[in-house]
Design a protein that fits this description.
alpha+beta, single chain, 2 domains, 5 strands, Heat Shock Protein 90, about 10% strand
Amino acid sequence: MAVRLPRPHRDDVRIALSGLLGGLLLYAVGLGVRPADEPIVLWPDSRVLLLPLVVTAGCELLRRTKPRTALLIGTVAVTVDLFTRGSLATVLMFTDLMYAAVLYGHAAAARRILWITGLITVAATVVPVAVWHAPEALLVGVGVGLVALTPAATGWIVRNHRDAAVAERLRAEQTALLAGIDRAQAVTAERARMARELHDMVANHLSAIAIHSTAALSLDDPKTSQDALAVIRENSVEGLAEMRRLIGILRDESGDLEPSAAPTLDGLEALTTGARTNGLDVTLDASHEARLPAPVELAAYRIVQESLTNALKHASPGRVTVTVAQLDGSLAVRVTSPCGDRDGPRAPGSGAGLIGMEERVALLDGRFEAGPEDSGGTKVWTVRATLPIAQGTQGTQSNQRTHGGSE
């Protein structure tokens, strides 16, 4: 099977043609490097120098695709040219082959070429001086250095600059990619945060509106309808206020507007009172220090709020208990509600509430559980969350560094 050589680069073709035509022009005018009667000239016939000229020009076609092969063949050709009258074009093309071998070849081969040409240059300088004991002998080393070491060193310098430029470009691309990933993650995290806030603040009011409006439509009792409309109006006003506040935060371009008055554990009493107004039988047992980290208090408040919303939508008639207790280094939240068939109207649920509670607990490296369980012979739905207080402190510090102290 025939071996197909790689197609030469267009610039290599131009270099090869230029070198060949230049050498032919020098041959036509009879201009050689050495006179025919010089002792080193073994083939005084000027036509012999055309052979290394053509071979070196052919090697130029491989300077980029097969640089090591081109240099080896070119070295043989320039050695043959050394014993003819010589062609300046052959020598110049050989220096280009040396340069290309270092620039385009493998890094290990490039280093070896640089060392070998350096050693040859030193030997070509020291040996003639030691043998001939004449200052003119230094010209041999100078010539070898110009033909071999100089183009190799030039190729090595250009190669290092090229590799450095490639590394900088890759580093810039990697930095841009990481920045894009960070931006995407920040946008995703902010969207998730806003989704949790919107769900937790508005879903409670809308659930109460849905349940009481259903009751008002299904019961032909003016007093019940009047009470239901009062609850609907109250929840509509509160929900509208929450929506306006969120819209104001989203529209604020300066980034200075904070979600004012972030809920704390002090608001649990008002939260349970509102749940009783909506028809739930709620008891609250809260014991904690006067002040806990803001992320911990916000997460606990939202978990209780969403649990009461779920109880309003899905729980059977019965007592809902809310327990908030500070343990050793953590805050425990527990909400239980009757679990079973429900005769009254239901509000639709999407499951986003449980997801939001789990996300809030996960952000604080806490533990979260929700599901049915038996309690004294009755079936209840229990929500449990354990929020590390130390982790909440770290979250507060990180939030202040990121948002200038806004929650």
